[in-house]
User: Fold this.
Amino acid sequence: MKLIKKEVEGKTFYALDAGSEYHGRTSARVWVSPRLVTISEGEEEIKFPVPSSKLERSAKGNWLLRPNPVFTTYDIFVSCGYRGGATFEILTPQDREIIEVSYQEWSSPAGHLGISHGLLVSIPTTGKLTYRWEKTGRLYGGPASGVTILYPDGRQELLEGLADGLEAIQEIAEL
Assistant:
């Protein structure tokens, strides 16, 4: 996702356009607090996971990404195969104190070459985020399913070929 910078009446505003649907239309726009934007090599950017941040809805229905010391915000993205699709399911945390903004990335203007799916999600910082994903279409030797574990410090563990989720992870751990 690209960070957009807008200056109006001497004030600077930042936004993320999530997704690229029919003929490039965005799925959602998320306004970002300037305190969450980092400057790297002269460019302003936002890197996921964003610690101490939370997605919220404003009174008028706009999505906001604000500082919050109790939450971490992740960007989950599952790319599709050629002329295929992608799906995923969040496995943990199970307490479901989750705020999410879903989006799609179409591989062509009308989506005929495939539709990938993504999700911006805020969860309590105390745990990790685990999700199961599946891809369809021509994968050219890539995995069709798997489980990914994301940690608040930015680490990522990928278990390819697991379709069952948490039960499969526990079974492998017992071996």
User: Anything to note?
Assistant: The longest strand covers residues 63-78. The radius of gyration is 17 Å. The mean pLDDT is 88. The first helix runs from residue 166 to 174.
